[in-house]
Please model this.
Amino acid sequence: MSDPVGPIGPCDESDLTGLLRLSAAQDWPHTGDDWRTVLACGEVFGHRNVQNEIISCAAMIPYESAGISSLTSLGMIVVDAQMRRRGLGQNLMQEAIQRASGQTPSPLLRLISTLDGRPLYEKYGFRTVEKLHTYRRPPGTPPVGKRPPARGQKLRPLDRSLVETVVALDASAFGHRRARMLQERIARAERSLVLFENAAPVGYGLLVRQKSLANLGPLVAPDDAAALTLITGLMSGLDSAPFRIDLPARQKAIFGDLETLGFVENDVPPIMLRSPDGMNLDGAQAIGGRNDLQRHYYGIAAQAFG
Model:
C-alpha cells in the first residue's frame, strides 16, 4: 500500500532541513541562506508524509507591476523521488494557479523549466517564450583581465545609499519591481557594483556565493560592453572560483566573449509564462514585445527568482 500523503500546507524556516534535503536530491547547490531568502521573499508550500516530513515543495515569489501586468515567479518545484507518479506535481501546479487566480488582478506566472517538467507545465497553460543559457566557468581557469568602463562611465561599489536606485534600475529593465528579493540578494552579496555614466546609474551586478560557487546576477547593463565591464569587475581577483551566470537567449551577442573568458555552456532550459487565463501567449509579436522590454536584462538572479 502507498504511503499516505497529507494535504498541501505552508512551509517555514522550521522546515529548512527537509527543504534542503529535497533540493540536494536534485543536485541543486542551494544552501540554508538560499532557502531563507526564498521564504523571506514569497511563500513556500508542499506535501508532508505521516511523519510530518516535507516530500514536495514549490515557491511563489510575487513582484509588483512596473508598467506591465503583475508577475509571480514560480520555482523550487520538487517532488521526492520516492513519491513521484502520484500526482503530487500536478497538485502543486493546481495550488499555484489557484493562489494566483485568487489575487486581484491575477498575475502572469513565470518559471524556468527542467526538461522533464516542461510537459507538466504546458498542460497547465505555460508557454515557452525564450531559452535561458546557463554558463559555467570551471575552477582553476586562467585569470581574466578587467574590461575597463567606456569613456564617461565609472564603477562604484553598491552601498546602502544606492539600494533604492538599484531597485528602480532593475524594475526598468525587468519590467517588475522586485524590492524585497533584491534587498535580500544585496545583503547576501559578496560583491556588488553599480555602473554610472555621466553620473547617472545605468547598470548593476551582484556576485552571490552558493558554497564555493560564485553566481553572477542579477545583471543589468545598457549594452554588451557595459555588461562585460560589470562581469569582469565582479570576477576580478576571484579567478580560482567556479563561476555561473544564466543569460536569456536575446543576449547571445556576448556568448562568444564569455567563452573567451573561460565560460562553457552547461544547460539551455526554457523560460515559460502563463497568462492569468492560461491562454494568449502564443503570438510571436506578443512574445517578441516581452523580450524587447527586457533588452537590458543580462543575467538572472537565480532560476527561482526569474
Notes: The first helix runs from residue 16 to 25. The mean pLDDT is 91.
